[in-house]
Amino acid sequence: MEPTYLPGTQIEIVNEMERGKIKHVLFDFDGTISLMREGWQRIMEPVCTEMICGDTEVTQAIKDEVDVMIDETTGIQTIFQMQRLQEMVRDHGLVPEDQVLSPVEYKKVYNDRLMEPVRARLAQLKSGEKTIEDFTVHGALRFLEVIAKQDVAMYVFSGTDRDDVRNEAAQLGVASYFEEIWGALPCAEGYSKEKIIREIIAEHHLEGPQVLAIGDGPVELRNVKEAGGIALGIASDEVQGQGWDASKRQRLLRAGADILIPDFLEADTLVQYLFPE
Q1: Which pLDDT value is given to residue 190?
Q2: Contact 147, 24 (CB under 8 A)
């Protein structure tokens, strides 16, 4: 079936939903607002394959299996991805049991590698070599500015460690837009996107269409749909910072996205659609 777009735009309307009631907006961070961690999948994949294979040569089948795991778990806390990795290591049996690491240890290996490009990008930003626009999805700053003028409370809920998300949001100049910035905690069970959505709905006595979740991963979209809310998927090419990523679009369609956009370049039109007069 051919996609349906708002006339003259790239704003894809997948499901008609009750609009104009949104009071609380939850944003994923990486790949939705920030590009600081662009390429994290290319770092996680070799970490996983190395841990699974040990001294054995990596096969294409194992690479494919890891890619599926990463694709399916985009948006959840890293520690849960590392729990999946530990299961995969044991399932394949290529590494002696006494060399199998804990999820926390796997996460450290991954984070140590990931933070190398992140620190380099933060340094480029601080030196003026790069700008905030270089490290945010195109139009995201304008979208935050426009939607903040609506009568809404905005939050970040990310699978990245909380202190890192808060630091990167501050460096990108967007922290002030949000009433709260949530991220992964040392105790994995203490935080999840599903838990945040449930608590916000209960605390503020909300109906489903009063909650909007915006993200590039299936987790946040599924969670908000299960709660009866509105799911806005960002299927952006993170290398370019704009334009469609076809594989992301398919993943977000499967997760139940009501609206799909490649980026926020049509921010004003999008806000007008979400908040009709």
Answers
A1: 66
A2: no
